[in-house]
Amino acid sequence: MSTIETKKVKFKVFRFNADEDYLPYYDEYDMDVTSEDVVLDVLNRIKWEHDGSFSYRRSCRHGICGACAIKVNGRSTLACKERMFDMVELFGEELTLDPLSQKRAIKDMIIDKGDFWEKHAAVTPYLVADIEEEPESENIVSPEDEHKLLDADLCIQCGACHYACPVVEINEEYFGPAAFAAAYRFSADVRDEDKERLKNVNKMGQGVWDCVKCFECAEVCPKEINPIEKITKLHQMAFQEGVAENNVAVRHAVGFKKSIQKRGVLDEGGLVLYSEGCGIVKHVPVALKMFKKGKIALPWNIPTSENMDEIKKLVKSSSTAKF
Amino acid sequence: MSKLKYALFTGCTAKQSTPEQYMSTMAVAKKLGIELVELVEASCCGASHLQDYDEFLSLVLNARNIAYAEKHGLTMVTICNTCQLNTAMTKHKLDNDPELKAKVNEKLAEVGLEYKGTSKITHFLYAIIDDIGLDKIKEMVVKPLSQFNIAPFYGCHNIRPSELANEGHKTPESPYRPTSLDDLIIACGGEAVDYEEKNKCCGFHVELQAPKTAAVLTGNAIAGAMDNNADMMVTPCPLCHLKLDTQAEHAGEAIGRELEMPVLHMQQMVGLALGCDPKELGLQHHVVDVNFV
After folding, report:
1. Cα angle value B280/A289/A171 (rounded, 5°)
2. How far apart (Å, rounded) are the C-alpha atoms in residues A89 and B48?
3. Would you call A243 an interface residue with chain B, using a CB distance cutoff of 8 Å?
């Protein structure tokens, strides 16, 4: 039998009661944590042994209800799944416990997750299909078709990725990684007949084109769903289903192919011009500053890859998408 | 120790908007006795955008780039975080999916190439740390940056997704507490500034379609470094560099404060410490003047 180890940890814990407090504050607790503990055990002990008014959400304790996600030293985590010793190894023996989003805090670790649920609801997170009420046979989905869902239906809606996403913090319209994973779950379902969902998640501002590609969502997901993989798939599906709009973001993605086909390496100015069209004028002030410092290649100085014939041939033979 | 030799994938910006990055890479390699064989046949990696449109094409083009490194029998060294991510991700996918690898190779065969999976792919930052070693760098420093507080800015694609990022180098790096760049700053004699934004996103990839998001992220990063008394920032990624160096004014407007911060490429910082001439490192190519050297 392995022995249980113990470590001393100083916890700084976010405290706030929206009904009473003007500003949040931190309480400190020195506690022994063991190699058996998960983060939720610590939350429980703070409440049971130190302060009964300490509030947090918990339910299943088995990584399936998604209630107990919080942040440890700024990292989103599912409290019932994350081992304390792993957190100590990563961040040291002083740990800060915060709610997933401080600005949405209601009481201590409990936040108003309203925006998360609104965005989830906005992507039509259910199957849209005309199914006969009394079918003559089963509606069978093949294992290959099921595999296309890429585990997206394992999402427990804990919000860890949503509140780790930097775009969600800045752009209130943005649906966020969890909603996109849900949208993918249903748009990738062979039985689904809804085209609006895909259009909806491809709109600028709210949709996948505003993803900054930071991979924070992939890093924090306690179910290892890899939301950004689904975001990439939703981009691709927009082209496959012919719903990609002719906008700056779409032209930017398509422009890479055009540029590579022409020179192998990117023609940076040409790409911005193709993407922006007349909108390129807004980049002129910065472009001038860059030009002065020798950071803009003139058309006759733009480099070209060697063996361009290979690149041209491969672009022609390997292209699978159209715009 | 036999001479270190790598296949260099310069990426696109090193030849256009960040010429100083190419210059400083060459200068530092020379100082460190590293031989770089430039992959002049390589195309753009797709910069994490091409795969949104055509994933298979992106895989084929990246596999072609890697195939050239393999032909030389060398480790591929990247000098851009996003190039690193795209090439490493292609390698990961092909090495773990024989069927996909066969499909890609069917295309590459049309131009007489083959992707084998024999070359390692690593960012120059990690090549320096793993193959030269921080102790050796310390020994070689002739102009320690001891009077400077230097804020490391890691850039997403060198640290996330961590599972993939850590395939490329020896010492595993946590995306929440990365240390490589801090260690390199210290080896160069500088003081590494700790600040919240050092492992955050600069917003580069939505510069065109979501300028406000991009500007706020850049602004937060520079402000974080300024608030922690940094004299300069340093980054291994030319895309982060473009945002931090050329967009500081926009970024300042977006977050409502004046921002200005000299930003060095990782190679420039090492080059300065090793005694390279600032001109040779291309410091004259920055929008925010680097006037402390």
Report:
1. 115
2. 32
3. no
Other beta carbons less than 10 A from residue B27's beta carbon: 21
- Search chain A and give the residue with CA nearest B254: A170
ipTM: 0.96
CA gap B153, B169 in Å, rounded: 19
Query: With an 8 Å Cβ cutoff, is A150 touching chain B?
Result: no
Interface mutation target, options A235, A248, A266, A276, chain B, most CBs of B under 10 Å: A266
What kind of architecture, by CATH, is found in domain B4-123? Up-down Bundle (1.20)
- The whole-angstrom distance between A53's CA and the closest CA on chain B is 30
Average pLDDT, rounded, for chain A? 96
Q: How many CB atoms lie under 10 A from the CB of residue B227?
A: 12
Q: Which residues contact B42 (CB under 8 A, 6 or more apart)?
A: A264, A265, A305, B9, B10, B64, B65, B68
- The tokens describing A309, both together, are 């014939």
Q: Where are the domains of chain B?
A: 4-123, 134-285
The domain made up of A114-240 has a fold known as Fumarate Reductase Iron-sulfur Protein; Chain B, domain 2 (1.10.1060)
Calculate the alpha carbon distances from B213 to A106, A166, A233, B226 in Å. 27, 9, 22, 20
Question: B134-285 is classed in which CATH architecture?
Answer: 3-Layer(aba) Sandwich (3.40)
CA distance B7 to B35: 9
Distance CA(A179)–CA(A120), nearest Å, equals: 5
* Choices 1.10.287.3510, 3.40.50.170, 3.10.20.30, 2.30.29.30: CATH for A6-111: 3.10.20.30
Residue B158 has pLDDT above 70, yes or no: yes
Beta bridge partners of B122: B77
Q: Find the closest chain B residue to A258 by CA distance.
A: B50
Run of H or E residues at B125: helix B124-127
Say yes or no to pLDDT of B134 above 60. Answer: yes
What are the DSSP E strand ranges found in A90-140? 94-98, 105-107, 110-111
Query: At B68, which amino acid appears?
Result: Y
Record the tokens describing residue B242, joined without a space: 């473009």
Question: pLDDT over 70 for what percent of chain B?
Answer: 99
Residue A218 to residues A214, A230, B161: CA-CA distances in angstroms?
A: 9, 10, 7
Q: What is the pLDDT of residues A95-141, one digit of tens each?
A: 999 999 999 999 999 999 999 999 999 999 999 998 888 889 888 89
